[in-house]
Amino acid sequence: MKKIFALVAISLVAVSCNTTKGVESINWLGKKVTLVSAMPENGKTTATRSFNKALNLNSYEQLFPKAIYNPETVLVSYSYDRNKSAENVADDFYKEELFLEIPSKAFKKEYKDSELEQVKLVYGKHCYCKGEAGYFKINQGSLKINHSEKETKVKLTFKAPSSSLIENVEFTVE
Q1: I want to staple 40 with a disulfide (CB 3.0 to 4.6 A). Which of 5, 112, 146, 165 is the partner?
Q2: What residue ranges of the chain have pLDDT lower than 70?
């Protein structure tokens, strides 16, 4: 009886190690997204990756990321968009987003602090919150990426320049 009980316990551990943890959804491009990190309540979180795209961060006064064509890079984005109130309330919007640019060739790499500039990591916060809204380059944190033709896995922990709901994210996008 002990042998059967031990076999069942080992089987359960083995099965749990192979299952993908997280919440699966389909993004607006029709690709599967698996969100592993805890999602903020009262909103929608999604991720995308776009091949042949890059970030143009040139600006005169303020940082504003713009997607441009580049056949050698992939643009990965992650966003949280809070649901609007059922009541008609002025300035009832809140959105946070992340952008990063990675090489299109398959790789697995870790970045830390100043190395984050290699992927042009940009954080954006959009809300009626004076002094906190806008786009910011991120250069404090750690990023693990496992990228292939099939999917991109991202695990990111960073220090936002203002209060943030998405400072720890982990997701996979097709």
Answers
A1: 165
A2: 1-20, 22, 25, 28-29, 37-38, 59-62
